[in-house]
Amino acid sequence: MRKLIYGMNVTLDGYIAAPGDDIAWGGPPSDELFQWWLDHDLACDLALYGRKLWQTMSAYWPTGDEQPDATPAEMEFARNWRDTPKVVFSSTIENVDWNARLVTDDAVTEITRLKAQDGGSMSIGGATLAGAAMRAGLIDEYTLATYPVLVGGGTPQFTVLDSWVNLNLVETQTFPGGVVLTRYETRR
């Protein structure tokens, strides 16, 4: 059975985007945090995206390594992003590219099917998609890179749940700029 990991950058008050889908509140991540996320992505065999996160990522990373100011880590991230198989869940997008396939049917059914397969870890991103997986009890690990900023509203990282999810802390790390990374495993 594959492991499903939900990880996002988040504000101290729990938002992954401020009002208007503004994600500029975090600024560029430190080199150390970017490397942590790169290592995380390199360890995953499959990436699951909701529509908004897919549109954000696919607007930049296909050519991120061609940017004149790209760092070696950004170049590696772009190459890995293109090479990693992706599943995009959306009922409004008509097609996807960059080593991705589109799922327009029930996300929970497809994620359950993917988890049951052999293979390495899968990452999941996007609040709506992750919320459906959370409510279905499919997420095995949560990673939060918490930035020291309050935005007061926007897209919350966590959705309303039907029941509690008990977690075990497995990692805490501090990064430049006061970002605190915490990683939790679901207690089953």
UniProtKB/TrEMBL annotation:
Start and end residues of each Bacterial bifunctional deaminase-reductase C-terminal domain: 2-181
GO annotation terms (biological process): riboflavin biosynthetic process
Signal peptide: none
Lineage: Bacteria, Bacillati, Actinomycetota, Actinomycetes, Mycobacteriales
InterPro entries the record matches: DHFR-like_dom_sf (IPR024072), RibDG_C (IPR002734), Riboflavin_Biosynth_HTPR (IPR050765)
SUPFAM superfamilies recorded: Dihydrofolate reductase-like
Origin: domain of life: Bacteria
Molecular function via GO: 5-amino-6-(5-phosphoribosylamino)uracil reductase activity
Source organism of this protein record: Mycolicibacterium neworleansense
Official protein name in the record: Deaminase-reductase domain-containing protein
